[in-house]
Amino acid sequence: MTALHEPAQAGSPHAFPCPPLRLVDHLAQRTAALVAEVVTRICAEVDFYRSLPAETVKTDVTRIVRRNFEIMLRVLRTGEPPSDDDLADLIASAGNRADEQVPLSDVLDAYHVGARHWWATIAGLAQDGTRFAEGDLVRIGDLHYAWLRAATRAVIAGYDADDLGRPSEPRPGRSELLAALIDGGRYREVAARFHLTVEPEYWAVAVAVEPNPDETDAMVSSTVAAARKVRRLQRQFDGLGRGEALYSLTAGGGIALLPVRPAPHAESTTAPPDAAELDDRLRQLGERMAARTTCAVDLVRADEVAEVVPQLRDLLSIAQRQSSHRPVVRFADLAVEFQLSRPTRASRLSAARLDPIADDAVLWQTLRCYLDNACSTATTAQELHVHPNTVTYRLRKVSDLTGLNLGNPADVLTALGAVLAATPRPDSAGCQRADLYGHSTE
Question: CA 215, CA 230: separation in Å to the nearest integer?
C-alpha cells in the first residue's frame, strides 16, 4: 500500500516534540467516556448517522471512533504521524461506508465532530487549571492536526477505489464461474480464462435471510441495512469456503457453492469430513446475521450443479413454509413434501381439492400446521395457541368442505400434495399468528 504520509524524521515538519505524557495517560484513562461522547455527538449532529441501524452505531461506528482515539493518543505520545497499518483500518472502514452509500461529506463531518470534541477536552484541561509548559498546547495542536489530516486522507482514499488500486469486483471471475456452473454452460472454459479451479464436488447452499429489526425501522436507511447484511453474509460464506466460495448473494439470501476438499489420504465416505462442521456453522448463521436464516444444502458434483440448484431453491421454499423453523434442511428431511411439490399435469387438479377453503385463512393455516406437525392435534393446538378441541373442530370442517378424510393416510397425502401444489396464500408463511388464531371459531 502506498504510504499516505511521509515518515517522521528529525527536523521534518512531521516530527514534533512529544507532549507531556501525563496528558496522554489522563486521556487514555477516559477512553470509554470520550469515545461514547463522540459517538453520541456524531449521531446527533451528522444527518446520515441518524438513520444508521442501532447495531451499526454500537459496533462499526463505535469501533472506528475508538480506533481513531487510540491512533490520536499514539500520535500524541510518540510525536510520529499515524502508521500505514493505522491508516489501513481507517481506509477499510471508509470503504464499508462507501459500499453503504454514506455520503463522503457526512463521514468527514463525523471525523471533524470527533476531532473538535477531543480538542475541546484537551483545551478544557488548561481552562480548569492544568498547567502546560510554554508552547505545549501549540505542539499538541500540531500533533492533533497531524492525526486529523492523515485520517481525512485515509477516508478519501477509502472512497476512491481507483486510487487504492482496489478492483471493483473483489473476486474476479468467480461470479462468471458460478453463473456458468448454474447455467450448465462451458464452466471449465470460464475457469481456465480466469485461472480458477473447478472442484470435483461442492456443497451447494441455497440460503434465505429474513429481514432484521433494522430493516423495518422507518428511521433506518434501508440501503445501509441491506448493504451491511450482504457484506456480513459474504464474510460468513468466505469463512465457510476458506476463501474459495462461489456465491451470488443479496440481503434476502442467494446461492453459494463451497468447495469440498477431503484431507489427503482420507478414507472415502458418503459425507465429506467437514459435513458436521458445515451444518453447525450454518445453524449459527442466523445468530451471526442478526436475522433468521434458512439453508437448503446438498452435496453435488460440478456437472450436477445446474440440475440441483433449482431443486435446492424449491426445497428452500418448502422449508420456509413449514410451521416449525429448521435452520438447515436437506432433501432427506422433506423428501415426501419435495416429491409432492413437483409440478405435474395433475398439480392443478391436486391444488383444486382445497379450493373450498382457499379464502379461509384460519382453516388453511390449521390444515398446514396439522400436516407440518405429523398430524398431531396436540402439537398443532400448542403452536396455534388454541384448545385441541378447536383444532379438531376446524379439521372436521376442512373434511366437510373438501371431502378429504384426514384420518385416512391416503387422504392425508392428498391433502399434503394439494397444500404444496396450491399457490401460497399471503397469510401462509407460518402458523404462529396470534391475531388469526387467538380465538375459537366454534
Answer: 13
